[in-house]
Amino acid sequence: MGLHKMEGADREDWPAVYAAGLSTFCVVTTEMLPVGLMMPIADDLQTSVGTAGLTLSLPALLAALFAPAVVLVAGRIDRRRILTALLLLLVVANVVSALAGTIGLLLAARVIVGFCMGGIWAIAGGLAPRLVSGRSIGVATAIIFGGVAAASVLGVPVGAIIGDAAGWRMAFAAMALLSGIVLAINLATLPALPVHQSVRLSAFGNQLLNRRIRFGLAITFLLVAGHFMAYTFVRPLLQIVSGIDAAWIGLLLFAYGAAGIGGNFVSGPVAARRVGATLLAIATALAAVLFAFAFFGNSPLGGAIILILWGIAYGGVSVSLQTWMMKSAPSDVEVATALFVAIFNIAIATGSFSGGRIVDQFDLGTNLLLAGVLPSLGILLSLKVQRPAH
User: Fold this and answer.
1) Cβ–Cβ contacts within 10 Å for residue 339, how many?
2) What is the distance of C-alpha 69 from the center of its chain?
3) Contacts of 275 (CB under 8 A, 6+ apart)
4) Residue 241 contacts residue 298 (beta carbons within 8 Å)
5) Selection from 328, 309, 322 nearest residue 279 by Cα
6) pLDDT digits (tens, 9 = 90+) for 135-162
């Protein structure tokens, strides 16, 4: 990716940056949509909540495999063409999801989502250095990953609201329409993104030998798996543990997402300056809110307040970790991003799957306590790497 720096050196292509942000918004919203629809999907397709949780863990696991594969197979194909083709495929996946009559067919559609997730995130996540100058990379990265945070503030709660009002299928149909609009925006705004040298498999091996990359992958796993062990079941948490009426869930998820967007845009520029300290702060905050929910989330007020703090804490995770990866491999950003997307999605799959088993075997409270252990380990890991220069 070092050969791409010249492209962004004198360019400030903000429309393309926003288009990339909309792409991450669409694919992450599609990936996360079942979070707000878990119980209606389980009821309609006559399966358990734990099994319905596979609609989240399956595409995440596949995205982990597809992210490096897309980068390798893409060769020298213009990244604009790949990004727009994946957005078209995302439209198809949402249409199939809306029409699925069995859990098997819904999971098949979610396999397609996993492919789109891996490819879109791996490519869009590393575009900032190609679209803007060096001084703007921190803000551009925050905007691209703002799509991830905005998926929480708009995507998941709007999906929940549409699902409550018109059925969960209509939420996927609406997502298909939005994905089509975002595809058109990308076609209109993205410049040509040629690649002059194919990514070789050896590049992945080289980056896995990079100590800073290995740290980034480890802390990504701990923070994201811990979060998704709990967040996959946020709706039952709010309804069952906190005793919040179903009518308030959509509004509370909006508030969570708004807090997440705030966390994203505060963390992005700060991480550009002091990324190690930012990761330490985020790991500490995430561990604190998960334990706090376990001990103090058993009332409507307690659950609501902790949910907002949870949004702030998790909102900075993606942009800060992506910043760490780009700083750790400035000449191989696409490879570093693909590795980041892979471990991020392995963590989503591991967290949501483990959470489903723990919830089915024990209860939501036990799952929260176990989830909090993982970012606590992230604190220790972050402290260990504070000694080297950031």
Assistant:
1) 28
2) 19
3) 320, 323, 324, 327, 390
4) yes
5) 322
6) 888 888 889 988 887 886 777 778 888 8
Of 256, 271, 264, 266, the residue nearest 309 (C-alpha): 256
Q: Which residues touch 161 (CB under 8 Å, ≥6 apart)?
A: 250
- Our measurement of the distance from residue 192's CA atom to the centroid of its chain's CA atoms, rounded to an integer in Å, reads 26
* Cα(35)–Cα(12) distance, integer angstroms: 36
CATH of the domain at 32: 1.20.1250.20
Domain count of the chain? 1
In a domain, 2, yes or no: no
CB of 315 closer than 8 Å to CB of 259: yes
Mean pLDDT of the chain, nearest integer: 88
Region 241-253 average pLDDT = 88
Q: Within 10 Å of residue 372's Cβ, how many Cβ atoms?
A: 22
180 within domain boundaries:
yes
Report, in angstroms and rounded to the nearest whole number, the Rg of the chain calculated over CA atoms.
Answer: 19
Instruction: Tell me how far apart the alpha carbons of residues 86 and 82 are, in angstroms, rounded to a whole number.
Output: 6
DSSP string, 141-178: HHHHHHHHHHIIIIIHHHHHHHHHHH-HHHHHHHHHHH
**Distance (Å, rounded) from C-alpha 180 to C-alpha 317?**
28
Q: In angstroms, what CA-CA distances link 127 with 118, 256, 274, 387?
A: 15, 27, 21, 30
348, HSE (Cβ side, Cα atoms, 13 Å)? 27
pTM score, two decimals? 0.84
Q: Which of 202, 195, 211 is nearest to 2 (CA)?
A: 195
Chain centroid, CA 15 distance in Å: 22
Which residue, among 268, 85, 93, 248, has the nearest Cα to 175 in the 3D structure?
A: 93
What is the rounded CA–CA span in Å between residue 82 and residue 89? 11
Supply the pLDDT for residue 375.
97
Does any domain span residue 274?
yes
Q: Is residue 235 part of a domain?
A: yes
| Domain span including residue 368 | 10-384
The size of the chain, in residues, is 390
Q: Residue for token digits 């998820």?
A: 253
**Is pLDDT at 107 greater than 50 in this prediction?**
yes
Q: Which two tokens stand for residue 131?
A: 């679209």
